[in-house]
Amino acid sequence: MIDHEVRVHRSDEQLPREQQLAWKIAEVAAERIEPTPEVTDMVINRVIDNAAVATASLGRAPILAARSQAEAHPVSLGGAGSTVFGSPARTSPEWAAWANGVAVRELDYHDTFLAAEYSHPGDNVPPLLAVAQHLGRSGADLLRGIVTGYEIQVDLVKGISLHAHKIDHVAHLGPSAAAGLGTLLGLPADTVYQAVGQALHTTTATRQSRKGEISTWKAHAPAFAGKMAVEAVDRAMRGQTSPSPVYEGEDGVIAWLLDGPEARYTVPLPAAGEARRAILDTYTKEHSAEYQAQAWIDLARRLGTERPDLRDPARVTSVVLHTSHHTHYVIGSGSGDPQKYDPAASRETLDHSIPYIFTVALQDGAWDHVASYAPERAGRPDTVELWRKVTTAEDAEWTRRYHSPDPAEKAFGGRVEIELADGSRVVEEIAVADAHPLGARPFAREQYVAKFRALAAGVLADEETERFLDVAQRLPELSADELSGLTVTPLTDALAAHPVAPGIF
């Protein structure tokens, strides 16, 4: 890997494009590198993972709304169209990227990477799959594109913090998806460079979408970034140019949205000829909740099973989760969001409330993507009483481990201290989730397949489940025609049963 220093340049410095971060990203995307077997295996895992969580969300309102929008846009003239999960119709690729992106993100249940910034790298897959289907590309082409998308997103997340300035993390997704599309389509570096610039310029937004009462836009934000990436690549292929230098300009992203004119960042990118392995640094979720909650769910399940008395609010005086800065301030009591303790809060809000999540996992000894968020579950009196005794506190050591560049030391958990009414205390800690590569039960192909089957149960016919798994696991050898099989047809059409209100389209 090569570390690239990125800083703001005055306009009179005339920074050559070959020295700009967007160009260096484009060079990575333009180089044809065959994935290693280990990387190929992980891409297949994540294609299965994305499809699993999309399948589980097909009947949810945001997915139905996005799908109905996509279906209003027929196949565009340049190709055969793209499939939409749960839909019998093909649509224009940017709208398929939109609808499938919402389906993948809705349950907050797919892969993650956390470093200077945080991300869901699997969000790269919907726009890449849509364009590959539309333009008749092969499974091998799609595979290479996905590898690039993961590589660029992970490298940007390692080097540039967005959340420190309340910029939403999908600002890294626009460029990574554009770069992945460049690899998929075999575009030259100068075209990818323009697409990366446009994608970044159009996908910067504030983090209010993940603050307070969290709305359905949380699932739409990455889908919008993917859609913008498709459109940016289309414009760049037609010879249209972009704001430049988009990162380093004196009126650019770094100068005005991030650390300012004196900022300096270091972004690692692969050297020429180097294998793209960033996907191997990422990790998926066993539970449908914010990633920083994964380890806490596992610890709470265990504690509740071993010590049933901890489930009784009358027996508990206080519960303090000592954890990282990010966990405390984003999903913990450090956020200052009263909604994180509100039984009537939206599912999206409860998904970002570690006090709620820890309480329910402790009491139930389990976590379910539907039942654990049900209004009747959130409003149970004994749960509300215990929930309001749970707070978080930043711990410097857990913050340091959260940001550690050493994968063996990097951690997303913390230490729980429970004070009981009888004066006794329970103190336990957990570093990583059970499903993490360094956890108690790391996910491998078997677990990804099991997750798909579990989430597809009752939604897909058994033969449809097995058909999809067969197609997905043959990804590198799929022909263009076979690539259309990377979608699912449910037992019942949720949109037909629950039509959404009409909009403009």
TrEMBL record:
Subunit structure and binding partners: Monomer.
Record keyword Transferase present: no
Enzyme Commission number(s) from the entry: 4.2.1.79
Species of origin: Krasilnikoviella flava
Catalytic activity: (2S,3S)-2-methylcitrate = 2-methyl-cis-aconitate + H2O
Domain MmgE/PrpD N-terminal: from-to ranges: 19-264
Domain spans labelled MmgE/PrpD C-terminal: 287-475
InterPro entries, A to Z: MmgE/PrpD_sf, MmgE/PrpD_sf_1, MmgE/PrpD_sf_2, MmgE_PrpD, MmgE_PrpD_C, MmgE_PrpD_N
Family statement: Belongs to the PrpD family.
GO MF annotation terms: 2-methylcitrate dehydratase activity
Keywords: Lyase
TM helices/strands, residue ranges: none
EC main group: lyase
Protein name from the UniProt record: 2-methylcitrate dehydratase
